[in-house]
Specification:
Blueprint lengths: L1 H24 L14 H8 L3 H12 L4 H17 L3 H14 L1 H5 L1 H12 L6 H7 L3 H18 L3 H7 L9 H18 L4 H9 L4 H19 L45 H5 L3 H8 L3 H8 L4 H18 L4 H8 L7 H16 L2 H8 L5 H18 L3 H9 L6 H7 L14
Helix pairs in contact: 3-4, 3-5, 4-5, 4-7, 5-7, 7-9, 8-9, 9-11, 9-19, 11-12, 11-13, 12-13, 15-16, 16-17, 17-18, 17-19, 19-20, 19-21, 20-21, 21-23, 22-23
């Protein structure tokens, strides 16, 4: 009996050793062992800008790891590509990995932020690096580039105002939005979570559209930074760099446990829309992913902000469900019937934001039955198309793919029609 057990153990050990040797020969990283050298095939794939080959290598290299080690393995590959000025290859590989891996898709925005932060180094042309990013994973790469610039050059008022305005190539609403949104991220990073001071910096952008877009980035950074999830650029700004505001701002709490509407409840009214649009991300820290409870908190917001808060629920639902439509629809159907359509507005806008493809939004809208919800959804897709496309012909092409009952809703959102849809909720 003992002999049989020993024989079985030998077989197991030999099989395990064979597996280790095979996995190592394929380039896989094994727990507790140094990573094997990068094969020549990968070098050739990078030189050929072959994102598919890079993604295949990454799957093999990281497949035996779990948790933080697995995430770090993928990050190391993306960062090496980024340091070699292969940002597009890195993002292309990340996109392919996310298509077949739920975990990578869930953290895709985090990965793309890291790529952006490391894509720019002092002395490089900001515009060239910024435009090497893509819209994948909610445009995190664009935001990361801004953070890197601020970390190295400081945030004097002149550079904040001119960075997006005067950079050649940032000539569409989509790219401009991502740039000024990234400024919001960078200001919160620079001012070490002092949200009012960062918002003051956003106000220096000079026009309401830029400022409002910047506010959204500031609130997003405030939320993820408060959880310790932010990807700040770890480079100190020059000591002689002037800043966008004086040092007279008082310390600002990162969280207020007794107030579920904080920080919106203590900020000036002009910041409320952008704040309440992000508030669901803070509320879930207290309620968990119970979206009935999250909706009840939004019901306590000031009257004009209730629908804005519900829209923020939709944005959060999109992320937490990895944009799986059936689950997302179920969660957005909770809460007050008066405001639930606004949850779907946030949901579909995020569907489009992640991929910059209106067809992803249209597919969701087609799944909605109630006229008010479907109308709101198609209007929102039209609004996204108006940001993505300057030529009205491109917007019209998007709306031409909508069923006839809702064509005008899409066109209304896209700025192609002045006729307000009858079923569009007012909130």
């Amino acid at each position: 009996m003992i002999r049989k057990i020993m024989m079985a153990l030998v077989v197991v050990v030999v099989a395990a050793a064979s597996f280790v040797l095979y996995a190592r020969s394929q380039g896989a990283v094994l727990p507790g062992l140094p990573p094997p050298p990068v094969p020549a095939e990968l070098v050739a794939a990078v030189a050929a800008t072959d994102s598919a080959a890079v993604a295949a290598f990454a799957r093999t290299r990281c497949r035996l790891l779990q948790g933080a080690k697995r995430k770090s393995c993928f990050e190391d590959i993306l960062l090496q590509l980024t340091r070699d000025n292969q940002v597009r290859v890195a993002l292309g590989a990340l996109n392919l990995l996310g298509q077949s891996d739920d975990e990578i898709r869930r953290f895709g925005h985090d990965y793309s932020h890291v790529v952006g932060i490391n894509a720019w180094t002092p002395g490089e042309n900001f515009g060239e690096v910024y435009l090497s990013c893509t819209e994948l994973f909610q445009s995190g790469c664009y935001h990361g580039v801004i953070q890197a610039v601020f970390a190295n050059q400081g945030t004097d008022s002149a550079s904040i105002a001119s960075l997006c305005r005067d950079t050649p190539g940032i000539n569409t609403s989509w790219l401009r939005f991502q740039c000024v949104h990234g400024i919001g991220h960078g200001l919160v990073q620079t001012y070490t979570m002092n949200l009012p001071r960062a918002l003051f910096g956003c106000d220096m952008l000079g026009n309401p559209w830029d400022a409002e877009s910047c506010y959204g980035g500031a609130f997003m950074e405030f939320i993820v930074g408060g959880r310790g999830q932010s990807h700040h650029a770890h480079v100190a700004a020059p000591k002689n760099a002037s800043t966008a505001s004086s040092d007279t701002f008082l310390p600002f709490k990162v969280r207020e446990p007794t107030d579920l509407l904080y920080p919106c409840s203590v900020l000036a009214e002009k910041y409320h829309r952008a704040c309440y649009q992000m508030q669901a991300g803070l509320v879930v820290e207290r309620t968990g992913l119970d979206f009935v409870k999250v909706a009840l908190v939004c019901d306590t917001a000031p009257l004009p902000m209730k629908k804005v808060c519900y829209q923020g629920i939709g944005t959060y639902v999109s992320g937490v469900t990895n944009r799986e439509p059936n689950s997302a629809i179920r969660l957005c159907s909770l809460g007050s019937t008066q405001y639930r359509a606004f949850c779907f507005i946030g949901l579909v806008k995020n569907f489009v934001d992640v991929t910059a493809n209106p067809d992803d939004g249209l597919a969701l809208c087609r799944m909605l039955g109630a006229a008010d919800i479907a109308t709101a959804c198609y209007v929102a897709v039209g609004e996204e198309a108006s940001i993505l496309y300057v030529p009205v012909e491109k917007r019209a092409e998007v709306c031409a793919r909508v069923e006839s009952r809702y064509t005008n809703a899409c066109r209304y959102g896209a700025g192609l029609s002045q006729e307000r849809p009858v079923d569009l909720p007012r909130g």
